[in-house]
Design brief:
By secondary structure, the protein is mostly helical. Helix content is 57%, strand content 5%. The protein has a two-stranded antiparallel ribbon. Strand 1 and strand 2 form a beta hairpin. The longest helix is centred in the middle third of the chain and has 23 residues. It is globular.
């Protein structure tokens, strides 16, 4: 069930709203096929940036990997009853402090798919009550359920950017 607006910071509404009323697990699974479509990219093509100062396709993939790991960690932590506030992160600094462009695009795709499988397995392991648990991440209240919707909506958001600006 789609999270209510009081389950997440307003900033994330664009990701959750972009999904509409869907079966979340089905969306998470279907996005794997969408990720696999990028397998035809050459390493040279995956270095493309649509404007100066923008991330390359490889860096977008790395960003998706990082964010999915962070959001899934938050979901797992809150589901397990973590009461300590979970820190925020600077996605731009994460990308700037790694070497995504030096990695083969095939490895980035493989890693993103592996992370996605772990996310789906985590989601399936949680009871409805665990999914409704709330905690604090980046100084804001958020539920486990909302975090999984954000994961799917975030990938959808970047997939659209890849389609319209990169590919």
């Amino acid at each position: 069930m789609k999270p209510h607006t009081n389950e997440y910071p307003a900033y994330y509404a664009k990701y959750i709203d972009a999904l509409g009323e869907v079966d979340l697990t089905s969306i998470l699974i279907s996005q794997i096929d969408e990720i696999k479509t990028l397998s035809s990219l050459t390493d040279e093509r995956a270095l493309y940036r649509y404007a100066e100062g923008k991330w390359s396709i490889k860096e977008v993939l790395g960003h998706l990997i990082d964010c999915e790991r962070v959001f899934a960690f938050r979901a797992m932590s809150i589901a397990r009853g973590e009461q300590q506030p979970l820190p925020g992160f600077d996605e731009n600094a994460y990308v700037a402090n790694t070497s995504f462009d030096a990695q083969p695009v095939s490895h980035l795709i493989e890693e993103l798919i592996s992370v996605r499988h772990a996310t789906i397995t985590l989601l399936r392991s949680l009871t409805p009550d665990e999914q409704l648990r709330s905690g604090t991440a980046n100084g804001k209240p958020i539920t486990v359920r909302a975090l999984f919707w954000i994961i799917a909506g975030h990938v959808k958001h970047h997939a659209e950017i890849l389609r319209t600006r990169y590919l």
